[in-house]
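#struct-help
A.M.: can someone run this one for me? Single chain, 232 residues.
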Amino acid sequence: MKHKALHFIILVISSISCLAQEEYSNILLSYSETQDIYYYKYNPDFIIKADYKSQSVAVNEYPEQLVQSVLSATSQEWENYNTLGGKEKAEQIEESHFEKIKKMDKDKNYFELIHKLTFKIDNISTVIVKFFLHQENTQPISGAMVMQKVNGKWYKTSNINLSTLAIMVMRLKSDVLVGAILGSSTDSSIQKLHNKINSETGISLTIFENEFLSWYEPNNNNKELFIDSKTW
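D.P.: on it. Structure tokens below:
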């Protein structure tokens, strides 16, 4: 059953995986030391089900609408529509997957959105959202979806330059992420993290990424302090 669950997840979010090894976006993805960085915690956690009946109702004017469109997609054409770069960049998905989406119990197979990080890359609005994919008879599995807004519409995208940041958004506890970004935590460890990644011009995502990676070195206890144990 676990193998089937993972297979389902790969089919649903393979082209938005934060561990993608190829660039799927035609947008230049690089960020400087200064960003318009915003954190948002869904409270309560935002449940999204595959309620869109057709591609025509998936306008994707907001990131959450795109998430719903991704889960609801029942054709390769719809998958292409959700993907930045369209047909050339979209994951090619077997028809059997779309048939499963049409038949699945929408109340037992859904996304639970936890929090999101919003910022700009070369003036392109970008969002990374942390979610748990719930599927019947399995434990929820964590993930991160990377999205960009082009010409008023949100698209899913995947780029190796954003891989580490996407993993961070997925793995970090919500109070750690917001405290690190805003410097508003009463926890001395989180406040110390904020001070470390804060430069004269604002939060440095590069320093934040390097700090995150250092937690996985031997004898570093920060991983236990900052990482959500429910994530992979």
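A.M.: thanks! The domain at 2-162 is CATH 3.10.450 (Nuclear Transport Factor 2; Chain: A,).
D.P.: also worth noting: The first strand starts at residue 38 and ends at 48.
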